């Protein structure tokens, strides 16, 4: 079955840009479509909250959206190879906004990006937690913080020193298994969205990120159906908020 892009990627449709979909750490940025030119295979989208810059680079980029197909919803996408930043794109009401022109390649394909929804946490959507390492417990805002989260993993920011002493979490090694408990928080709600206990594996470590912090990437090993539902809803609601903010801004 073929999909007609001119009937799918329409102006005002919400889209998700998925970066490096086949890597260990895919991530996603929501946006909306401003315009599409089928003749020259290009789409203009709103500049996302975390913007494209001239030096933005990626191995893969897919532009995706969700449609209703008979009895189910499916996510469809196209591969994008190049982008161009438009600083003053004119909307229908002559308002000038920032936008991004993407060059795409057909065909439109069904795309599975469950692990690509990597939510960058902010003041409204927070994740607090504690982890156990070498029989000791460590807590967010003290020994580490959670930078982002997806259905497949999360990233930790670890200060190299706490209270002027070396942080024991900087001893974490690749492939080690770590138990972590997290609390999903939407600050507009009176109670947490959910509390999860998950087993993770260390898949990447960057000690050169800065002089004071290290970055650690964890792969989730045993999310389970109930926890997956909670986390998926948390990420989805946060993305909907992002799209609403984009719509109001533009």
From TrEMBL:
| Alphabetized GO MF terms | cyclic-di-GMP binding
Q: Which InterPro entries match?
A: PilZ_domain
- Please list the residue ranges annotated as the PilZ domain: 143-235
List the Pfam families hit by this protein, alphabetically.
PilZ (PF07238)
Provide the protein name: PilZ domain-containing protein
Q: Which species is this record about?
A: Desulfobacula phenolica
